[in-house]
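Allow me, if you will, to draw on your knowledge of protein folds for a short while. The matter concerns a single protein, recorded as an amino acid sequence and a row of C-alpha cells. Could you please explain, in whatever detail you think fit, how the C-alpha cells follow from the sequence? I remain grateful for any guidance, and I place the record below:

…
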Amino acid sequence: MNQQISQKSAIGLDGNLAAALGYPIGILGLINFIIEKENRFVKFHGIQSVLYSVGLGILFTVLWVVLIIIGVIFSSISDALGLIVGVLFTILMFGMFLVWIGGLLFFAYKAYQGQMFKLPVIGSLAEKLANK
C-alpha cells in the first residue's frame, strides 16, 4: 500500500494528494473512484468520501423532515413552543454541519498522511468496492 500512496493517480496527482482532495471536493472523490484502476489507496478514499457525504446527506434530510414536522406540531400548540423547537432545530443542524465539515477535513488530513483510516461500516464497504 505504501507504494500506492506515492504512486500517481489516474488524474495525475500524487496518490496521497488525490485521496485527500477527494474529501473536501466531493466530485473529485467520485471521479477518483470511477476512473482509478491502479491505485487502490486513491480508489478507497474516493469511495469512502462519497459514502460519507451521501450518508450524512441522507441523515440530514431525514432529521430535517422529522424536525419540521415536530416544529409544525408544536407551533400549532403554542407559538412559544414552535419558536423553541425552531431555535433547537437551527442549533442542531448547524452542529451537524460542523461535524460533517470537521470530518471531511480530518479524513483529508489522514489520507494526505498516507493512512488508511476506515470509518465504521462504510470503511469496510469502501474497501470491498476498492478491491474489485
